[in-house]
Known about the structure:
By secondary structure, the protein is α+β, with helices and mostly antiparallel strands. Helix content is 65%, strand content 12%.
Amino acid sequence: MDFGKILIFLGISLIVFGLFIHYVGRLPGDIYIKRDNFVFYFPITTSILLSVVLSLLFYLFFRFFR
C-alpha cells in the first residue's frame, strides 16, 4: 500500500472530523450536567455517530485502495 495514499486518507478524515465537531457540536443524547462548581460532559451520541462514520471511511478506504 502506498504511504502517500494513507496520509491523504488520514488528512481527509481529520478534516471531516474537524468540520463535524465545529458545525454539529453537541447532539441530543450527549450527557451534559452543569452544577455550581462542576461541569460533566460525556458525548455518547457524538461518539457513536463518529464511530459509524469512521468505520464507513475505513471500509471504503481498504476496499478501494488495496
